[in-house]
Amino acid sequence: MRQIVLDTETTGLSPEAGDRIIEIGCVELLHRKLTGNNFHHYLNPDRDIHEDAMKVHGISTDFLSDKPRFENIVEEFLAYVQDAQIIIHNAPFDVGFLNAELQRARKPVFKEHVNGVLDTLAMAKELYPGKRNSLDALCERLGVSNAARTLHGGLLDAELLADVYINLTRGQDALLMEGDDPKQAGQGAAKADYSRFNLPVIQPSAKELELHEQVLVQIDKASGGKTLWRLHQTA
Fold this sequence. Notes:
By secondary structure, this protein is α/β, with parallel strands linked by helices. It is built from 9 helices and 6 strands. Strands 1, 2, 3, 4, 5 and 6 form a 6-stranded mixed β-sheet that branches.
């Protein structure tokens, strides 16, 4: 499956109040691996940037004065995301801004161009209820280095989110060793005769059982609830 991890930076918080997108950063995943086929543009919003927003991303109005407008790159952008599954952290925010920009460009809403939108913030809240689930918090929790992130940035945040997403969805494909062919996984495995061995049975601790259950939950979510053990449990 082709997936696009997307992030935007904006002039403020409200597309309804006229705030605009000033940066779009996207990275492509094929079979859960980064391809290097990225999409990145700074955009001239034709308006000032709120002071609080500048503190977040550090992008100034002067810097954007000679950058293209959204309508100048909309065809390139839509061709890039066409029919892909889109992964966004706090998707309603970015999709709301994208829809506003597409409306100005007289294009259909964002969902009409893509194969669904996956919100990693919603996923994280379900996996880690009651905990901080910002991108920085998830990087720390999942062991993703964000040392280069002093300010928000569309492309850098998309790259970090791709790593976070892979860690959030440690499904069957993620368990393959690098270089393995997923089509051949589980086929042709050599059979061993253990009848001559007296193998000890080591019972897991309560903590190990808890961690095991967390991994099963993550795999189940990555499969869309189609793992065999869950189907047998509900049968």
